[in-house]
UniProtKB/TrEMBL annotation:
Single GO term (MF): ATP hydrolysis activity
Classification via Pfam families: ABC_tran (PF00005)
Family membership: Belongs to the ABC transporter superfamily.
Presence of keyword Transferase: no
Domain ABC transporter: 13-243
Highest rank taxon of the organism: Bacteria
Name of the protein in question: ABC transporter ATP-binding protein
Ligase among keywords: no
Species this chain originates from: Prosthecodimorpha hirschii
Keyword tags: ATP-binding, Nucleotide-binding, Transport
Length: 267
């Protein structure tokens, strides 16, 4: 069910351009005039052909990269630097291999100045929430890929982010684990009340998770269309409307992938 849209967006992307200018190489126009809002507590999925600037957008919302034009406003404030209120999770869980899972989760809290005893308490609470309560003192390489990704979620959630960004978080997982992780993510999304922006290449994942799907054009990425998913959760995969969404996204993406290939060939 879609949530009510409140007055102030959680994330507001206003006419955002991004040109990468790598030293000694031709500049790359990654995004052009990108514009959309994310409501508080909304689950937005970003779908688009490879290289259209989806990851670039997440880095900029996270404050790890600046915009070349336009602005990104989170909770009324322009993004100028990273903040604990905006968490970013990558495809491979970026945990410190030498720390236990509990210490990995507690690490970010130490930067926030939380006292050691409280850090441990929060880490235990978060790891229990993601079903890793009996793995506290394991090192990352003792965990499966899905468990590591859940630990990365616990670490991000411990910071109580208002916005959680996920860059193809389940792409490296097998189909069954991926489906479980999607259920798990919907559960922590509901519990945390955070807004989520998730990048995926999977149309089924987009339909399974999103309140709205933002479809990007081929590079330079612009908003091609925004599609609200008007189906109950869990999404009824046998419902004819599910298949209508599927066909629509397949067509939208195919058109952009064709365009990207045609431009590459012409270049
Ligand atoms: N650090 C960087 N320096 C220079 N160019 C970059 C950098 N990061 C990304 N780019 C370029 O910007 C464009 C957009 O890349 P980005 O990774 O954001 O796309 P994407 O939509 O996430 O792609 P994919 O779906 O394949 O992960 C690409 O042409 C890429 O080569």
């Amino acid at each position: 069910m879609n949530r009510p849209i409140s007055a102030r967006p959680s994330v507001s992307i206003k006419a955002v351009d991004k040109i990468w200018t790598p030293e000694g190489r031709t500049p790359v126009e990654a995004l052009r005039g990108l514009e959309f809002d994310v409501a508080p507590g909304e689950f937005v999925v970003l779908l688009g052909p490879s290289g259209c600037g989806k990851s670039t957008l997440l880095y900029m919302i996270a404050g790890l990269e600046g915009v070349s034009g336009g602005s990104i406003v989170c909770d009324g404030l322009p993004v100028t630097e990273p903040s604990a209120e905006r968490g970013l999770i990558f495809q491979e869980a970026s945990l410190f291999p030498w720390l236990t899972i509990a210490d990995n989760v507690a690490f970010g809290l130490s930067i926030q100045g939380v006292l050691p005893v409280r850090r441990r308490e929060i880490a235990i609470e978060m790891l229990k929430r993601v079903g890793l309560g009996d793995m506290l003192d394991k090192k990352p390489d003792e965990l499966s890929g899905g468990m590591r990704q859940r630990a990365a979620c616990a670490r991000a959630l411990a910071m109580k982010p208002k916005v959680l960004m996920m860059d193809e978080p389940f792409a490296a997982l097998d189909v069954q684990t991926r489906s479980r992780m999607q259920d798990f993510l919907l559960q922590i999304w509901r519990d945390s009340g955070a807004s989520i922006l998730l990048v995926t290449h999977s149309i089924d994942e987009a339909i399974a998770l999103a309140d709205r799907v933002v479809v990007f054009t081929a590079r330079p990425g612009r908003v091609k269309t925004i599609v609200p998913i008007d189906l109950p959760r869990p999404r009824p995969t046998r419902d004819p409307r599910y298949h209508e969404y599927r066909d629509m996204f397949t067509e939208l993406l195919a058109a952009e992938v064709d365009r990207a290939f045609a431009e590459q060939e012409a270049a």
